Amino acid sequence: MSNFARTNRYVMTQKQRYEAVIAYFEEAMPVAETELHFANDFQLLVAVMLSAQCTDKRVNMVTPALFEAFPTPVAMAAASDEEVLAYVKSVSYPNSKAKHLVATAQQLVERFGGEVPETLEELTSLPGVGRKTANVVMSVAFGQARMAVDTHVFRVSHRLGLVSDKAKTPLAVEQALVKHIPEALIPKAHHWLILHGRYVCKALKPLCMECGLHNACAFYNKVKM
């Protein structure tokens, strides 16, 4: 029996819960990566911008044609909003996203020599790029220890008990997670939590009976008491 399986949730300290969750994911999901399809940093940034409040599956359906038409920041910067919209009209909020993509491409060309910047301050200065998007790019493209908090990470972190009920904002959740997760594991842990939330710990109907985190999950043990 693994150390994870022997851990009793009712006597867990916060440190033990983190250790148990990490041990589980290390064994169950040794490889955890984004499900977005991209070939370079620019394509990653575009895909992440499109993925806001939209599924990765839908984004992956539209980006091949989009990237063929506009393979570089220079190409997209020269396009009109309407031209980009024609390729992304099936994603959520297509009008604003098309506008932001063109404006961001222009900024990349004008300010960063056509390269995607590596810092939070520079990335979030781009149109349509918030902290979550910037964290994803810094983590995936540049290997930085950044924890992007989307709805899945927010929900799973609270249900497992990794963060307290007082962590009511994505930033508060991010700060709590990076405080307790080893720096080297933070990029992978981001994907652990996303994928677990996407396929197991679903918002409306969590698949608790299929989940291997019973012993460490505050939500499961609360509702089953």
Walk me through the structure.
The protein is mostly helical. The chain folds into two domains: 3-30 and 147-223, Endonuclease Iii, domain 2 (Orthogonal Bundle); 41-142, Hypothetical protein, domain 2 (Endonuclease III, domain 1, Orthogonal Bundle). 59% of the residues lie in helices and 0% in strands. The chain has helices at residues 3-6, 14-28, 41-50, 56-69, 73-77, 81-88, 94-112, 120-123, 131-142, 151-160, 170-180, 186-199, 218-223. 36% of the residues are buried. Residues 1-9 have low confidence and may be disordered.
Offer a concise description of the structure.
With 225 residues, this protein is mostly helical.
Nearest-integer average pLDDT: 93
Count of discrete alpha- or pi-helical segments spanning 4 or more residues: 13
Overall number of structural domains: 2
Tell me the major beta sheet: none
Question: Which stretches of 5+ consecutive residues score pLDDT under 50?
Answer: 1-9
Second CATH tier, the architecture of the largest domain: Orthogonal Bundle
**Main CATH class of the largest domain:** Mainly Alpha
**Class derived from helix and strand content:** mainly alpha
CATH homolog superfamily of the largest domain: Helix-hairpin-Helix base-excision DNA repair enzymes (C-terminal)
Q: Give the strand content.
A: under 5%
CATH topology of the largest domain: Endonuclease Iii, domain 2
Shape: elongated
Distance between the termini: 24 Å
Q: What's the SSE pattern? A: HHHHHHHHHHHHH
Q: Give the tally of β-strands.
A: 0
User: What's the multimeric state?
Assistant: single chain
Q: Which value, in Å, is the CA radius of gyration?
A: 19 Å
What percent of residues adopt helix (DSSP H or I)? 55-70%
